[in-house]
């Protein structure tokens, strides 16, 4: 079984939840780099086939090699492409975009939605793990017809990461700055006493206290959070 870092294990858990009791799904790992996540999805039978996309040749070769070494050459494809360009989505797909900046994720999703259309998007699950600009990803998702299904956090070698699972229903909605910066799902978990989320929020509060000086969204989110937390 392919070992994963704590961060990628969290991403894998979201893929598992997205699959539910279904096996043999098609999983598309955008920005696959080493290909370990795709290998693990095949190892566990969640994926019947995987597609890895990579913008650069070298990581694409790494992914292809890892899949071949694990015996999955026949049920995998690796494409050198930008995001999901040239990869038409199918009903039931799980799309994973992990370990990338939020603006890159937004760009990839925007173009994929245009290319595939909303009727396919409604039948696809998205597992997203932005490394930065998380608040912009959440704003984009809610304003573009996605819905938040779940979100988890982990601490891997002293760095906090979060991972969201989103669906698409075409209903555009507005989230508050607090929801954008802390996450609508994580806020619910925090209010239900989730200790991992409490640690994450304490960490975010420290960072936001500094970032608020240059970022008005963060400033207002921090104010809303302090107000709501003291209720
Ligand atoms: C930091 S690595 C993360 C790899 C893996 N997804 C993970 O979470 O461990 C980001 C990878 O995404 C690739 N990448 C960045 N932008 C991309 C894009 N627009 N389309 C496809 N791959 C991209 C990079 O080449 C790199 O290999």
Descriptive account of the structure:
- This protein folds into 2 domains: 6-172, 3-Layer(aba) Sandwich (Rossmann fold), CATH 3.40.50; 176-231.
- The chain is 47% helix and 23% strand.
- It is built from 10 helices and 7 strands.
- The protein has helices spanning 6-19, 36-43, 57-69, 102-116, 118-121, 134-143, 177-182, 184-191, 195-211, 216-229; strands spanning 25-30, 47-54, 76-80, 94-100, 125-130, 146-156, 159-168.
- Strands 3-2-1-4-5-7-6 form a 7-stranded mixed beta sheet, sandwiched between helices.
- Helix 4 (102-116) packs parallel to helix 6 and helix 8 (184-191) crosses helix 9.
- The model has no long low-confidence stretch (mean pLDDT 97).
- S-adenosylmethionine binds next to strand 2, strand 4 and helix 4.
Question: What keyword list fits this structure?
Answer:
alpha/beta, 7 strands, 231 residues, 2 domains, 10 helices
Short description:
The chain is α/β, with parallel strands linked by helices. It has helices at residues 6-19, 36-43, 57-69, 102-116, 118-121, 134-143, 177-182, 184-191, 195-211, 216-229, and strands at residues 25-30, 47-54, 76-80, 94-100, 125-130, 146-156, 159-168.
């Amino acid at each position: 079984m392919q070992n994963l870092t704590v961060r990628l294990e969290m991403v894998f858990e979201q893929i598992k939840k997205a699959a539910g009791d279904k096996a043999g799904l098609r999983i598309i790992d955008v920005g696959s780099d080493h290909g370990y996540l795709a290998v693990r999805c095949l190892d566990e039978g969640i994926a019947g086939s995987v597609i890895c996309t990579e913008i650069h040749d070298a990581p694409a070769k790494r992914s292809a090699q890892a899949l071949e070494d694990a015996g999955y050459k026949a049920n995998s494809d690796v494409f050198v492409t930008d995001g999901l360009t040239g990869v038409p989505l199918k009903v039931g797909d799980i799309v994973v975009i992990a370990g990338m900046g939020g603006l890159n994720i937004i760009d990839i999703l925007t173009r994929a939605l245009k290319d595939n259309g909303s009727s396919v998007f409604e039948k696809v699950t998205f597992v997203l793990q932005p490394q930065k600009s998380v608040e912009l990803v959440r704003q984009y998702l809610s304003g573009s017809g996605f819905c938040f299904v779940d979100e988890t956090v982990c601490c891997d070698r002293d760095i906090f990461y979060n991972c969201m699972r989103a669906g698409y229903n075409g209903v555009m909605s507005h989230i508050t700055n607090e929801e954008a910066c802390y996450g609508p799902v994580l806020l619910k978990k925090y209010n239900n006493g989730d200790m991992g989320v409490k640690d994450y929020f304490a960490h975010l509060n420290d960072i936001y206290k500094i970032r608020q000086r240059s970022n008005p969204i963060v400033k207002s989110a921090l104010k809303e959070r302090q107000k709501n937390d003291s209720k």
